[in-house]
Amino acid sequence: MLEKNIDFEKYNQMKEAPENEPERQYYFIAKAKELVKKESERLGRTLTCAVITFGCQMNARDSEKLAGILELAGYELVEEETADFVIYNTCTVRDNANQRVYGRLGNLNSLKKKNPNKKIALCGCMMQEDSVIEKIKQSYSFVNLIFGTHNIYKFAELLVTMLSNDSMIIDIWKDTDKIVEQLPVERKYPFKSGINIMFGCNNFCSYCIVPYVRGRERSRNPKDIIREIEELVADGVVEIMLLGQNVNSYGKNLEEPITFAELLKEIEKIDGLERIRFMTSHPKDLSDELIQVMKESKKICRHLHLPLQSGSSRILKDMNRRYTKESYLELAGKLRKEIPDLSLTTDIIVGFPGETKEDVDETIDVVKKVQYDNAFTFIYSKRTGTPAAAMENQVPEEEVKENFDRLLKVVQETARERVKLLEGQVADALVEEINEHDASLVTGRLSNNTLVHFKGDHSLIGKIVTVTLKECKGFYYLGEMVE
What we know:
The protein is of the alpha/beta class and 483 residues long.
């Protein structure tokens, strides 16, 4: 956890909260510690909390920050929703994500009736939608705290406000240019970690609500990123994942601009860091410089997630993706040529307004030509407030399902063939966990992101070991560790 050596007693003795960050949040963590301690003494047990994450790696990293603050405040972190304090970190990329949250809130209401002192908080992208806030106020008035994506850094302050009164607290910002460093983090894995290098998005793809809920692009100072990674490596981290809605845009809005490729070269110099991953890369601005840095790197993993969304240039234009089928194929071809062992994965949407069978055929053509190692296929989800939601020619559900099934069949066939190419080879794997289906096996991840299961025990977790890839089982391998 970052900032273990904060002198909270000093902050607790302050009469007024400091104005500057992150000291202001340390002050409120100290206040929260006192409030949690009093309640724990009253109940005769430690208060518990559960941070439930919906959505992307950005949300997962945000949840680690929330968990870090809660643990410092004196809560015991658990996974059960019976906890004294439950916080949902929400996603709103697709409508079913919203519906899942509403469904789970109904269950929390039942639990709160059994435990009237239970606290419930909602944060994340879904909370940036005005219609969501109105619905929660009307139908889920038992929720105690609501905040969004722009003010997550002041969670300690909001926590104290929530613990100090019984009314619903709503603190939503429309946007921010603020980035607060040096806040506590409780990592899920001791040996790997996500790192935010930027926040927000400037792309405004016509189907996507992210720029409206995450705000405009804001890049972190490279020195702050390097310092954080150095601290993580000193704490045992061997692999980092650089996170941004479009990492290729990193550094453009800094006072002293720096490219993403230049940042990667600086990160590679950090002693003790073994692996570097990143996501997500937008095809429109993936530079030759970045390809060259990846090619020459000894630490950047051989995996690139390059969202296609559609193989039809007409649909791509309506999506405001700012590339064509032809330019995407040219880029994929260049990547395959320059980095032959690179694993390429992608995102594809089926059912965008106006999409025809012929458009889906174009997408299938790209899948066959690129030969993705994996593709995440989604049915278009209409998001109120996006340009695509107002478009005519919304595709009938039956037609979408038929096209989706056709695409998925090709994706699975080509991915299996691509992954199978590694059979019999020897590769390095970072051991992540005991296999959830067979306790005699451990699960490791190759540089190209493929999973391999092999005989091992807890002592291997967090270590990079050499494995023979014995048998391909579709999208993963059974292997054997090389002694």
